[in-house]
Design brief:
The structure holds three protein chains of three kinds. Chain A has two helices and no strands. By secondary structure, chain A is mainly alpha-helical. The interface between A and C is large, with 33 and 43 residues.
Chain lengths: 67, 225, 251
């Protein structure tokens, strides 16, 4: 099978590739957004906990063992 | 208990019909929406007659949605809802009473107005009876399901729009079976479909009579704790 | 005020006893999940694009099935996860259930969106139209509205415990209503459309197509699980940040 025939998808390229492309965009986009949100919240939590360390009450148990 | 229930229904109904209560608004909205339909699609009487049952049901749904925020919002703002919650009457009954008075002041007037608007849309004379019957059975479901949306958004400022968005999917069975029972949407061509959808509409209404107050009470508790 | 702080302290204990364990466990689980998801999706992509035959009726468009059907499946699976967690949250007040329900919603909504759009892209060459008011498509569209409503409710109520309870009530009412809505749409549809509509998937499916479909479905499911774990971790952190901020401004 030639490359051109593969990309042509039996004449249905205009439907098949957008379907796969959109699935990729949505899934990768959601994954990236989830990771970015996680990083933001982790950073905020660390900053707040570091600021809090000076206070008498012990900080909540560290739930993020990785540095 | 029954007396307390009655008192609450009377109180809410009175508050709604009083000037500024907003009970007339829904009917007025129903009228205006129906009036703009021919302006939108053209004055073709045959076409209007065909879509009349469906259009009237859609307009009815919109009018019912418009008044949802009245259900609990005012009582939440002035604190009477807190009193009702601490009272002896179960919250489920409070929600049922409020939904009932909502139906009395919104659903019932809309059903009364519907035949009149049917004339404007060239509704088939034979369809008037089934339409009113279907609306009589279906509108309580709109009030009781709507109570869920109103209760969920009671603490949200200007939650009326959100309540509508939450509730519209739940209104879909009422719309489908209601239009079917009224003989709209080409259903009359299928023998027995009208009666069948009337029964199904009744079933949906009964389910929402139970589900509505229970879920609305749970939503109120969630919002007011 | 003393009673108040005591209450929040015990609440905090309750809220973090389990989440702390969850954080430790999910932290170890996540890398494994990511690797397996990536492997499965890569294998699924290879099978569905290169190593599977074209359908004798639908030609190459059948390849859309390998993403459409798993998406549709996860759209429903996501709602089940959401409704199940909501039930646990309401009945047992388990702090993680709330978080799981909230985290599942955007993933489920994304898959519902994908199922709708890929279905439309499949329908265009097969039915000759982008959209038909077919019972399945209509139900899927309503499911999408339910997801959006659920997310909108979470977004408008600020206090997480209150929002969680309200959203759980909505998800449960939705789960009771989904079968009723689906049945009503099927009823409505059979009245309006003769049974000439092309059925997606067909009656039987050849093994050469079943294999890529299963691998893809598995890959999508693990993708869902991985993102669910990650989003739950994020949500736990978000709540901790909120509590810490409140504690700071409260002093």
């Amino acid at each position: 099978m030639s490359m051109a025939a593969f990309f042509d998808m039996g004449g249905y390229a205009a439907f098949i590739w957008p379907a796969y492309g959109l699935a990729a965009i949505v899934m990768i986009g959601l994954a990236l957004q989830s990771v970015a949100d996680f990083r933001t919240q982790r950073k905020l939590a660390r900053e707040l906990e570091a600021g809090k360390a000076a206070r008498p009450r012990a900080p909540a148990r560290n739930a993020n063992p990785e540095v | 208990m029954i007396r307390a229930f009655k008192t609450l229904v009377f109180r809410d109904t009175k508050l709604a019909i009083r000037v500024g209560g907003g009970a007339g608004m829904a009917v007025f909205f129903f009228l205006t929406v129906t009036a703009i339909v021919p302006l939108g699609i053209g004055p073709n009487l045959k076409l209007l007659g065909n879509i009349a049952p469906g259009m009237l049901w859609v307009a009815l749904l919109l009018s019912a949605l418009l008044t949802l925020d009245r259900l609990f919002q005012a009582d939440f703002e002035d604190g009477s809802l807190d009193l009702l919650m601490t009272g002896a009457m179960p919250l489920e009954l409070v929600a049922a009473a409020k939904a009932l008075s909502h139906w009395l002041t919104t659903g019932l007037p809309l059903v009364v107005a519907a035949p009149l608007l049917g004339l404007l849309l060239n509704l088939d004379t034979a369809a008037f009876g089934p339409l009113v019957l279907a609306m009589l059975i279906g509108t309580p479901a709109l009030s009781f399901l709507g109570a869920i949306g109103a209760a969920l958004t009671v603490s949200v400022r200007r939650g009326g729009l959100l309540a509508s968005l939450l509730v519209i999917p739940f209104y879909i069975p009422v719309l489908i079976f209601g239009v079917g029972a009224a003989g709209g949407g080409g259903v009359s061509a299928v023998p027995g479909a009208g009666g069948q959808s009337l029964l199904l509409l009744g079933a949906v209404a009964l389910v929402s009579l139970v589900l509505g107050p229970v879920a609305a009470a749970a939503a109120l508790r969630a919002n007011l704790r | 005020m003393a009673g108040m702080s005591e209450l929040t302290a015990s609440q905090r204990f309750q809220a973090f006893a389990n989440p702390a364990r969850f954080m430790a466990l999910s932290d170890r689980l996540l890398p494994f999940c990511v690797v397996v998801t990536a492997l499965l999706l890569a294998a699924g992509l290879y099978l569905s694009l290169f190593d599977s035959p074209a359908d004798y009726q639908q030609g190459e468009t059948v390849r859309i099935m390998y993403i459409h059907v798993p998406s549709a499946w996860l759209a429903m699976f996501g709602y089940m996860v959401m409704a199940g967690s909501s039930a646990v949250a309401l009945v047992f007040r388990h702090p993680l259930a709330d978080i799981a329900a909230k985290s599942a919603a955007p993933i489920g909504a994304a898959f519902t969106f994908l199922a709708l759009v890929t279905g439309s892209l499949w329908g265009r060459p097969m039915w000759g139209t982008w959209w038909v008011w077919d019972a399945r498509l209509t139900s899927m569209l309503i499911l999408f509205f339910l997801y959006l409503g659920y997310m909108a409710l979470w977004a408008t109520i600020e206090e997480p415990v209150r929002a969680g309870r309200a959203a759980a009530v909505l998800a449960l009412v939705g789960s009771i209503n989904v079968p009723i809505i689906h049945y009503s749409v099927v009823w409505w549809n059979t009245l309006h459309q003769p049974a000439s509509v092309f059925r997606i998937g067909g009656p039987a499916i050849a093994t050469s197509m079943l294999m890529p479909l299963l691998i893809m479905a598995l890959g999508f499911t693990l993708f869902f699980v991985t993102l669910l774990l990650l989003r739950m971790r994020t949500e736990i952190l978000r709540r901790r940040v909120r509590v810490l901020r409140l504690a700071r401004t409260g002093r």
